[in-house]
Amino acid sequence: MENKIFNNIVRENHEKVYSLFRGMVQTHEEADDLTQETFIKVYKNLDKFKGNSKMFTWIYRIAVNTGINYLRKERLKQIVGLEKIDLRDDDEPQALTNQAREILTRGIKKLPAKQQMVIMLRSYQELSYREIANIMDVTVNSAKVNFSHAVRNLKDILEKMGVNYDTL
Amino acid sequence: MTHCKKIQPLLVLYFEKELDREDMIAVESHLKSCATCRQQLAELTALTGLMKPVRHTLPSSYSSELIVQIHKKLEKNKKLKIGLVPAISFSSVLLVLALSFFLNTPAPAPDRFFSDEYLLFKQFSGISFYDNEVIYNETEEIAEDLMPGDYFSSSQEYLLENSEDYNEVITQLDDDAFEIILQNLKNMEI
After folding, report:
1. A40 and B48 in contact by Cβ < 8 A?
2. Residue A8 sits at the chain B interface (C-beta within 8 Å)
3. CB pairs A-B closer than 8 Å
4. Cβ A144 vs Cβ A138: under 8 Å
5. Is residue B59 in some structural domain?
6. pLDDT digits (tens, 9 = 90+) for B153-188
7. Tally of structural domains, chain B
8. Do A96 and A167 share a domain, yes or no?
9. Which residue from A minimizes the CA distance to B54?
10. B42 and B128, same structural domain?
């Protein structure tokens, strides 16, 4: 495969991929690593791309799977007791901060991986349900139900964290 | 109240105007007479209103740097692969033979058991990668835990039993199924 073609693919799609991950992780370095990992998979699998979907959809699918895998590895680390210690996590009263976005990010991080991804795609990437369905390989109706389920779960999580909607 | 339970799962899609006509009318009609669901709708609307795209401006040099980094890693992977093939293939053969004996099933593809998740798990457990006896004993337990027929859909079971790519299997699992595997690993107390 010619590197020139691949390099152009990276140039045309890297911002969307980076932005997906940047909404999901805390640092530029993590988002950068995941972006690299995604394009390495793109490089290795480019001969399998048959053109049945748009290149953008195919790359997004690889990115979403990479993201799910990352989130699940983080969860695995939690299970074996090697999670990153976040002192602000869990039971600290939420009234101490009025930074809504930060609270929201902490709530989203508590969702299961696929629910996090569907929120990223719908709310932060503003994709249509049809695009989300293609990327996550589900029906349009399932994409809608999954998003609805994720938002309602997030609301429950935020309530358990003591979030008052008047302060958000 | 029973009606509320039917309506509340529809509220997110209601304000997104993604419901079909029949559900749309049902929700509208219910909201007129139910303060609780109106409150729920207001909170869900406030919540989704906060989840807006954040624009991260990348420096113009980022794409060039990214391309350089990707090619460096691809080159490194290529060299690593050439160096590791003899060592991995020998221990893989031992592992696959042991597994086929224990599980009485056709020999699985070796990389299923040398996936990132498994290696990660090995790394955390502090057991040497080349300790084959420990590896296949644990792998046998993991393989059993991965196939408790009651928990997985038929398509997930098919994936678990037939996929040669363990990473792919992990990625495709439903959130609930993944959580079950984690709990199984946790209960192994290694």
Report:
1. no
2. no
3. 124
4. no
5. no
6. 555 555 555 555 556 666 777 787 777 767 766 665
7. 2
8. yes
9. A124
10. no
